[in-house]
Structure formats: structure tokens, C-alpha cells
Design a protein that fits this description.
Order of helices and strands: HEHEEHHEHEHEEHEEEEEHEEEHEEEHHH
Radius of gyration: 21 Å
Distance between the termini: 40 Å
Bound molecules: flavin-adenine dinucleotide
Number of strands: 18
Amino acid sequence: MRDYSSYSFWLEDAGEALTPRPSLAHSTDVDVAILGAGYSGLWTAYFLLRHSPQLRVAVVEKEIAGFGASGRNGGWCSPNFPVTATTLEKRFGAEAARNLLLSMRAAVDEVGRVCNEEKIDARFHKGGVLTLARGRHQLPGIRSSYAAYERLGLGDRYQMLSATEATERIRVSDVHGGLFTPDGASLHPARLVRGLARAVEARGGIIYEQTLVTGFKAGSLITPGGELRAKRAMVLAGEAYLTRLPRLHRALLPVYSLISLTEPLSASQWSQIGWQNGESVASTRNTVVYLTKTPDGRILFGSRGAPYAFGSKIRDQQDTHEATVKMIQRSLVEWFPPLAGIGFTHAWGGPVGMPRDWMPAVRFDASSRIGSIMGYTGQGVSTSNLSGRLLAGLITNRPTGLETLPPAQRCSPKWEIEPLRWLIVRYMQGAFLRIDEAAEAGRPRPVDARLAEYLGRH
Ligand SMILES: Cc1cc2nc3c(=O)[nH]c(=O)nc-3n(C[C@H](O)[C@H](O)[C@H](O)COP(=O)(O)OP(=O)(O)OC[C@H]3O[C@@H](n4cnc5c(N)ncnc54)[C@H](O)[C@@H]3O)c2cc1C
């Protein structure tokens, strides 16, 4: 059996033994069968049982609850949506964009509320989200985000910070300004997902672990031990891993996000850095940088970077792709020069599910009784709460007020077939890195920058 605690610091620090629950041993009938015990599957189960306690709900998980991204992420519970406010406005109009962003803000509070009510010790801390302009070239990006929030009537929840104001919050090198919202939280990802699993069980749900779903058909998940037959709905909530099912192979792209964690900082190191409020911190780098201050006083530094593997392969070795880990650890010291020589205790990562148009989708087809929830592009902690609530409502025909939001009942285009997929994705990964590096070095933008941005627009 795998040592599940080795998959992230969070799983190691989950405060429990991670002993797998029993697997599905024979064919069973339920009302709702859910593939995947990450946030998506568990929030769906939770809201189904909360509003319809008579339903028989079962979740099938190939490893243990929280094995996927839900047990490994950066701990941002963010009011930001995977697609920017500007793009939402362009694609869906101002009203839909505004409603979605308001629902995201509410989803952050809903996560905190459920943790409180269900006594889930997820260390939910509402420190806000701070996006830094690291380098002058990043200022236009945060200014245009702020302008979009203002146009949507959400400007009152965002504050443009001068370099001095940003530095008063956290002392990072080369900061030229920032954009702050108080509406985000940080949390302990594994404690949330493991606690959610227990909350589902406390409400009568059943979770079968170490049970691989090998296929599905209308009304049934197929596993080696038997079928999980569902009278009312069958839900696919396996995010990046769904690409392993032949019918969903091109629905998403598994893209790796990697994290390095420092040893706990000393009091004097913290006094040099500040960061007293524990904001979730990022820059506007194309290749994504996200930071979290952990409850025990370490810095978690995350980024994309592990190269896409041909055929959408998902392999444990990619979790610790050496060149990316080194790049992350170097970047941390560039951000915080006083931490030169700091020790790193953990490095891990995992695949996030990226749809071709970057848009998460929550679907339920009443005729086939198949539901699906997928495509958070690495921003699923709060989004999965919103999506699970929405899907539970769609399945039971109960209005949630979320069914008119852009993710409801939509379908993203499929990714290209190989080898075209590999060529496009590897090209985009390389091009975005070159764009970032040129901007940071003060060099002109690469000649193909517009092409890369067109291909990767979101
Ligand atoms: C390193 C990293 C950092 C991240 N940081 C953040 C962050 O700070 N904030 C944020 O909002 N988001 C972040 N994300 C993304 C976020 O964690 C995900 O969007 C979210 O956890 C997705 O939840 P999920 O339940 O949909 O998928 P998962 O958590 O991946 O769960 C899917 C589950 O389905 C199971 N499964 C899949 N296929 C099968 C099958 N065939 N049979 C049985 N079981 C199956 C898997 O084992 C897995 O447990 C990060 C992700 C990673 C990898």
C-alpha cells in the first residue's frame, strides 16, 4: 500500500493515520454514485445529504479521500475564479461575471461556515488575497484587474496598494504595487478534505476507498469489485485523473503544479518579512506563483513548471520534477533575500485539470442521469464548494440560485489529439516562461508573445 502521508506536507500533517476505508466488494444500489473523494465529489455528497437526507449517496475513490489535488494544494480559498474578471466579462457579459464573482466570494465564507458547523479543523484563516506587482512590468496587469472589478461594481472589495503599502504587508524584493482584497482565506487542505469525508459519513454517506472506477455507463460506475448502480444520478468528479478514462481522455489536460515548503522560520526571520496577516500572496507571472504562510510558520511557495507529458500521462515522478523544484526554491530566495540558505523540508505537487477554454463546467443530464464537475485550472478550493452546491441542486431539481452562472451546464471543447496536443502545450509552456523571463530581465517581448497569449487566452 502507498504511504499516503508522503504525497504532501498537508497529508503528513492531517492529524490521522490515513488508513483506507473498505473498498466496494460487490455490486450495490444507491441513489447517487460519485466518482472521486476530493473536494468536488465530497461537496456534492455533502450538499445532497444536507438537503435530502433520505438519499443513499456513495463515493468511490481509487486511493483515499484527499489523495488528489484536494490533499496537496496551496491552501488558497480564494474569491478569484479560474478565469479572469476581464475574460468573464468579455465572454459572458457584465451581469453574469459580477454574479459569478459575488458567488465566489460567498463560497469562501460558505467553506468557513461549514468548517465551523461540522467542526472541521481546517485552520480557516481569512487573511485576504494580495497580488503583488513584482517588477514594474507587472503593474499594468494588476491595474487592469482592478479596472475590471470597478467596472463590475466590485471595486469596493479591492484596494490598489502602492509599493510602500504592499511592503508594509509583506517584504518581498522588487515590489512596485499590489492589489488586495480581504475576501480570501487560507486553510489546511488535507484537514478540510478529510473532515469533509467524515461530515459526509456522519450524514449517512458511504465512502469506498481503494476502489478504481474502470468505466461508467448511464446509472452505473464500474469497478473491479462490482457495479455501483445509481437510481438518480452518477457523478464524475475525478478532475485531472478523469483523463485516464478513455471517454474523457481529451476533456481536460493534466497540468502539474508544484510546491516547496521551507522549514519553520525563526521569530527574527519573520520580523524581517512581516506578513503578519497571513494573506494568500501571488504575483502576475504567467507561469503562476502562489505563496501561503502555513499555520506552523513556514512559507509554502508554489508554481507551475513541470513539462506536460505526452499522452496526458500522470505519474508520481512529475510531482517532484527536479528542475521545477530547483526553480521554485531559487525563486523563493529571490523573493525573500534575507532567507538565503533556508532549508526546505518538503517538495510535492500534483495534476490540476485544465479545460481547453479554462472554464470549469458543472453538468447534469437528466436523461442519462450523468453529472460531472471539472476543470478548475488549479483554483478549486472555493470553486469546488460552489460547484458541489450547484450540482447537488441540479441533481435534485432544487433551486440554488447558482444555475444561471456561467459554469452551469456548459461543455468545454476537447483538447487536440496527440501529437498536436503535446506540441501546442509544450510550446505554450515554453513561450510563457520566455515571456516572463524577458519581462524580468527588461528585454523586449519575444516575437511570438502574441501567438502564445492567443493560444493560452483565459
Ligand atoms: C500543487 C497544487 C496546488 C494547488 N493550489 C491551489 C490553491 O492554493 N487554491 C485552489 O483553489 N486550488 C489549488 N489547487 C487546485 C485544487 O486543489 C483542485 O482544483 C481541487 O482540489 C480539485 O478537487 P477535485 O475533487 O475536483 O479533484 P481531486 O482532489 O484531484 O480529486 C479527485 C479524486 O478522484 C479520484 N479518482 C480519479 N479517478 C478515479 C477513478 N477512475 N476511480 C476512482 N477514483 C478516482 C482521485 O484519486 C482523487 O482523489 C492546487 C492543485 C495542486 C495540484
